[in-house]
TrEMBL record:
This is Tectonic-1 isoform X2. It comes from Neomonachus schauinslandi (Hawaiian monk seal). Pfam families: TCTN_DUF1619. Residues 27-192, 202-383 form the Tectonic-1-3 domain. GO terms for cellular component: MKS complex.
Length: 411
């Protein structure tokens, strides 16, 4: 629609239609997706083929990382290398959701700046003004100041997969020497909005009485997903005075490190229920909702270190009765752990977890119109560490030859 002044206007329906096209309703970051910025993506330098830093590595959503890499720099050109400057890490603006650029840019807020001198002393700056690297000449000595040594990103996200805040902590230092291999450290951590960090179950080894850290891997190549409730990551049935499984369905007891536990309840099944439906119901009661696939070897294991986590090995044991349908009756969890590290301060490390599902034949009905099934769960911790034996050094052997006339004239 055109006005008399020659300007063109759009109708309300056209504006809303264009807005819906530009801003998808389902736009959100997914696990592992690279974080987009106003011009490209958030760069997270990392060592790839060697220890040298690669600046084109993108930061991935919900992937916590901590890496070290080196740069071979010419001190004369330190002011020209962008990756050494503070602005290279603080200037990008992260998109709140991927593909959405209008009014959705999250600036990176500099939260703290530490200055490290040549003698390794640290000084915290009160303001967060951007400092540029500067080449300084003091006689015959040349140094480059305000060089970035450590970068720590702290990103806050929402349940909808949106970036809410972005924080940055920097360590700046001074570099001297004509050609130096400079080591830099980079970290990035994601924190969910309106939540508190999960307390650890040990650092590093497990502490007796604290819950086991466990989770599952939604897809190959992804990290471990854990519930925010640390007492609900690995659980068993909870025993009550009524001993009714359905009355306490969903209420579980956490598995605590070092505590052997056993619990059970009664399940009454109607006469009309089939064995296949009963098997599904019993399995959901024994395992609970979201039984984990992995258990953390240490109390402070990181979710991104998937290869370090211990997979839960499932074993199904049926009775010798040749029935067409076997009903699970018990779930037995065996946790093997070992003492790791120094003899003076050994740390508890989990090395194997086995979950055995014990089944039996489908029970017959009672005198009434129902079947009564006794369900039980048990946890056993087994110390698999070899006994420590005190070692003694072998007595030294003297391999010395004396001259033939050493004892002359006595011999």
């Amino acid at each position: 629609m055109k006005t008399s002044d020659g300007f063109s206007l759009s109708s309300e329906s056209e504006i809303s239609f264009e807005t819906q096209l530009d801003i998808p309703a389902t736009a959100k970051y997914k696990y592992g997706a690279r974080l987009q910025t106003s011009d490209s993506f958030l760069r997270f330098p990392s060592p790839l083929m060697s220890s040298l830093c690669t600046d084109d590595n993108p930061a991935a959503f919900l992937v916590n990382q901590a890496v070290k890499c080196t740069r071979r720099i010419n001190l004369e050109q330190c002011e020209e290398i962008e990756a050494l400057g503070m602005a290279y890490y603080s200037s990008p603006k992260i998109l709140r959701v991927p593909g959405l650029r209008t009014k959705a840019e999250i600036p990176i807020t500099v939260q703290s700046i530490l200055i490290q001198s040549l003698n390794k002393t640290l000084t915290r700056l009160e303001d967060s003004v951007v400092l540029n690297q500067t080449l300084v000449e003091a006689g015959d000595v040349k140094i480059c100041t305000n060089v970035v040594l450590e970068v720590k990103y702290s990103l806050t996200y929402t349940e909808a997969g949106e970036i809410a805040q972005a924080g940055l902590a920097l360590l700046l230092g001074t570099v001297s020497g004509p050609v130096v291999p400079l080591e830099q450290k980079f970290e990035i951590h994601f924190i969910q909005q309106n939540t508190k960090p999960i307390p650890l179950s040990g650092n590093p080894g497990y502490v007796v009485g604290l819950p086991l850290a466990a989770g599952f891997q939604p897809q190959k190549g992804s990290g471990i997903i854990q519930t925010m409730n640390r007492f609900g990551q690995l659980t068993i049935l909870r025993s009550t005075a009524e001993q009714d499984c359905l009355a306490v369905e969903g209420i579980r007891t956490p598995v605590l490190f070092g505590y052997d536990m056993q619990s059970g309840c009664k399940l009454r099944l109607p006469k009309a229920i089939t064995c296949q439906l009963a098997v599904q119901k019993v399995k959901s009661l024994l395992k609970g909702q979201g039984f984990p696939d992995y258990v953390a070897p240490f109390g402070n294991s990181q979710a991104q270190d998937v290869l370090d986590w211990v997979p839960v090995r499932f074993i199904s044991q049926a009775s010798h009765m040749k029935d067409s349908c076997q009903l699970p009756m018990a779930l037995v969890i065996e946790v093997k752990w070992t003492k790791y590290g120094s003899l003076l301060n050994p740390q508890a490390k989990i090395v194997n977890v086995t979950a055995s599902l014990l089944s039996s034949s489908f029970p017959e009905t009672n005198s009434g119109n129902e079947r009564t099934v006794l369900l039980s769960t048990a946890v056993a911790f087994v110390d698999a560490s070899a006994p420590a034996e005190a070692g003694f050094r072998a007595r030294p052997t003297i391999n010395a030859r004396l001259p033939f006339n050493f004892f002359f004239p006595f011999v």
